[in-house]
Amino acid sequence: MDKKVGQFLIENEQKFIHFWEEQIIVHHYRDNPELILQNGHLMYHLITNSMLNGFSEEDVKLLAHKVARERVKANINIGEFVYNVNLGRSIIIKYLNLSGLMPEDLQAIINLVNKQFDLFCYFAVSKYTEIKDKKLQEQNLFISQTHKDRLAILGQMSSSFVHEFRNPLTSVMGFIKLLKHEHPTLPYLDVVSQELDQLKFRITQFLHTSKLNMLAESQNEDITIHLLIEEVLEFLYPSIVDGNVQIHTNIDADICITGDRNELKQVFLNLLINAVDAVCEEENLRKIDIQTNIDDHQIKIRISNNGPTIDPEAVQLIFEPFFTTKKLGTGIGLFVCKNIVEKHHGEIECISDNHLTTFQLTFPIKQN
C-alpha cells in the first residue's frame, strides 16, 4: 500500500510543487526562490522515499539542518519558514485524500507524513535557534570586548592626561592659596579655586575609570554618612546657590559605612552634581532630597531630584560606560559610581517617573 501511495506522489510531484510554489511566502529581495523550490523538491522526495524504501529520521534531520543554516544566512523570519513547511504538509495530505485509498488505509500514511513534517520542523527550528543563539553570544562577546578595548584606550589616554595636567594643576592651586593668603580681599579667587577643584574632580573621574584596580589599594575606615554628605554639599554650595536649588535632608546621624572616604565622596559628588544639573533644566521649583534609613538589615541612601524624567530605556543603560543623557557628558561618572559602590559590597539603582528621579544606594550594615 505504501509503495502505491509513493508512486502516486511521484506522478503528481509537478502539480504539488506548482501549487505549493504559488502560495508560499517568499521575499524576492532577500530570499533565493530557486533554493526554496529546490528544498521543496527535496522534502517531497523524502516523503515519497519513505513510502517506497522506509522512513529515515537521519535524512529528515540532515535536510532540516541544511534549511536552518540557509534561513539564518538569509536572515528570514523563522515563522515564515514554518508556515511554508506546514503549507506543504497540507497540500500533500490533500492530494493523499484524492488518491482513492480507503480511510482506514489512508490514516497510517497520513500519520507517517505528519511524523516526518513534525520532525522536520523540530530539527529545523532547533538548529535555527541554536545558530541564532551562538551568533548572539558572539555579538555580545564582541560588544564586551569592544567596551574593554575602549576602556583600555581610555586608560592610556587618562594616564597621559593625568601626567600632563596634574603637576601644573597642583602648582596653580598652590599659587591660588598663596594669593588668597596674601590678598584675602582680591575678588574672584574663590570662584577660581572652586573651578580648579571641579577640574581636579573630573581628572580623578578619568583616573578611576581607566584604573579601577586602584580601588583595591584604598584605605577603609568608618565613615559617618551625614558628615560626608555635608562635606560634599559644602563643596557644591556655589553651584547650589547659583542654581537656586533647595536641598532637603533627612539623614540619620548614627549611620556609618566602612569604606574608603575619598571613593565614597566621589560617589556622592557625582550623584549630587548630576542632580543639580538635572534640576537646573527646570524653570519651576528646583528640589533635591537626600534621605537615609535602615531597612531589612541594610543601609539605604536615596538622592532624589525633580528634574526631567529619564526614559525607561535610558535607565537600563545609565550605568554603562560612555552612555550619557547629557549633551556634554562623558558617560563615565555613573559607571565609576557603580564600580565603587559594588566594590563596597553595595548596590546602586535608578528609579525615574513623572515626579522624581531617584538614585538609591544600598549597603550592608557593618557587623560587629
From TrEMBL:
Transferase recorded as keyword: yes
Pfam families with a match to the protein in the record: HATPase_c, HisK_N, HisKA
Example GO molecular function: ATP binding
Record EC number: 2.7.13.3
Domain spans labelled Histidine kinase: 160-367
UniProt-listed Gene3D superfamilies: 1.10.287.130, Histidine kinase N-terminal domain, Histidine kinase-like ATPase, C-terminal domain
Catalytic activity: ATP + protein L-histidine = ADP + protein N-phospho-L-histidine
CDD domains assigned to the protein according to its UniProt record, in alphabetical order: HisKA (cd00082)
Xref: InterPro entries: HATPase_C_sf, HATPase_dom, His_kinase_dom, HisK_dim/P_dom, HisK_dim/P_sf, Histidine_kinase_N, Sig_transdc_His_kin-like_C
Keywords, ordered alphabetically: ATP-binding, Kinase, Nucleotide-binding, Phosphoprotein, Transferase, Two-component regulatory system
Top EC group: transferase
Coiled coil start-end: none
Matching PROSITE patterns: HIS_KIN (PS50109)
PANTHER family on file: PEROXIDE STRESS-ACTIVATED HISTIDINE KINASE MAK3 (PTHR43065:SF10), SENSOR HISTIDINE KINASE (PTHR43065)
Name of protein: histidine kinase
Organism name: Neobacillus rhizophilus
